[in-house]
Amino acid sequence: MKARIVNEKYETAAAVVFAETRGKAKSAALITDCCEGANFCDIEVRRVPQMDKYYVEGKTEMDWSDPKDRVALVKECGFCCRHPIAEDCKDCSAKDFCDKAVQKEEET
Fold first, then answer.
1. Which of 7, 67, 72, 89 stands the most exposed, by the fewest C-beta atoms within 10 Å?
2. Does residue 8 sit in helix, strand or coil?
3. How many angstroms separate the CA atoms of 5 and 10, rounded?
4. Contact (CB, 8 A) for 102 and 89
5. 3-state secondary structure of 43
């Protein structure tokens, strides 16, 4: 199974889905938070082979709410919170890999 970043064209929110083909990744994207309600033709797909190792049987998407998945998304793909808050960064499982969290620490 191949990992792919999906997002709606002109939007910054994204997700990592696991699918055999680019077309199947676009279909899987339609049920993610970032692409729900998007036009199929407006979904962009980009291959991220470094995320393939996180696939397990039955997993269709990396889960931002899962601490281990969050670390992988931040470390391997550069994901970050849209609007980081210092208190949230303090307890975040990915704070050691997040550029935005490091910036917050340097400001304080």
1. 67
2. strand
3. 14
4. no
5. strand
- What is the rounded CA–CA span in Å between residue 16 and residue 61? 6
Q: Rounded CA gap, 91 and 81, in Å?
A: 13
For 25-37, how does the pLDDT look when each residue is reduced to its tens digit (9 = 90+)? 999 999 999 999 9
Question: Six-digit token pair at 48?
Answer: 């991220």
Q: What is the dihedral of CA 23, 74, 76, 12, to 10 degrees?
A: 40
61 neighbors 28 (Cβ within 8 angstroms): yes
Strands 43-47, 15-19: pairing kind: unpaired
> What's the pTM?
0.87
